[in-house]
Amino acid sequence: MKRAIVNIGCIVSGDWRKPLVDGDAILIDGEKIAKVGSITDADLQDCDLVIDANGVTACPGLIDSHVHIAFGDFTPRLNAVGFLQNYLHGGTTTAISACEVHVPGTPHTVEGVKALAVAAKQCWDNLRPGGMRVHGGNVILEPGMTEADFKELAAKGIWLAKAGFGDVKTPFDYVPLIQAAKNAGMITNVHTGGASLNLANSIFGKHLVAMQPDVSFHVNGGPIAMPDEDFEMVIDETKAALQIVQAGNIRTALLTLNLVLKKNCYDRLLIATDTPTATGVMPQGMIKTIAEMSCLSDLAPEMLIAAATGNNAKVYRLNSGFLQPGKDADILLLDAALGGSKKTALEGLKNGDVTSCVCCFTSGVPRYVGRSRCTPPPARYAKIIKNKIINELSAPPLL
Q1: Domains of the chain with CATH codes
Q2: 68-83 confidence digits (pLDDT tens)
Q3: Helices (H), 338-398
Q4: Residue 330 and which of 34, 339, 366, 372 are 20 to 30 A apart at CA?
């Protein structure tokens, strides 16, 4: 089944090295992107669905690499139901678990955390709230775990490991656990900064240098940032990706942004939310961070979009995050908000305004066409001009 989006005003690639794509159309074949830029009349004739973007902006679906999921579309920390479907309406098409630590009564035994990770992964493999991709099963590292435990977990499909909430005496106790997880092929993530919960250790630069993780989670604090002098140490003495989050310290997020530009390592910058937490449920958390970092820096918004899409995809080995042939067809259409002073989504983001989501595809399936229920009304709407798909594509009504 083929689908097309035409009359696009601007195409953002997700690749910060070439952030904009020439052309005005995207062709989807099945679950993958087939063409980006231009398509033929023959392509359009073969399509079951054609959407006229009406001059709005297309970009990859946003990848939030720090979401505190539990089980089902429910966050027990805030007693909120349906939050992931709302995140989809805020532009997030992929959520990556930051570990299932918010499950009530989280275990601290080796068998308990292994079972929790496997159960979470298998549940989320069978559940896509609103069509969102959810990668669950981020195993919490605990003392006593062995190489055999990580090999067993990897054989069951677990590919994420998290340091920061284990029952360790000092953060240095995570060093052999991180290495064992990496030996098993897992992507290792470490809580960074001051304690966020009473079970979390404060983890700073010297600990990250000793651990050498793949990702420094909320390097700008979750919510409390590490000392300023530690940031260059982490950049210079580790290869960790540097994840900045909406729930962190905005000043040190800008510090991180300036340092990765100065040190020519922009590939390592990731944008995420670190929600839901005590900060709250934030469907627009990814868009808000893109807008904040764009308006408070000299960087173009399409560069920040890349940090929220392509950079996350590369670090987490995903086949999404880019508008390129062969990539998963997770696509957003965005526009400037109605009543704002700017005319396009990118101009609005540079101005510090959140954008409007007017269309969302995941796995090549249109999840809504029309105003999303979690962003402001747009200046322009996408229109369906051909449709052989028998289902309702408009966004659910606002509550």
Answers
A1: 2-60+322-387 (2.30.40.10), 62-283 (3.20.20.140)
A2: 999 999 999 899 999 9
A3: 345-350
A4: 339
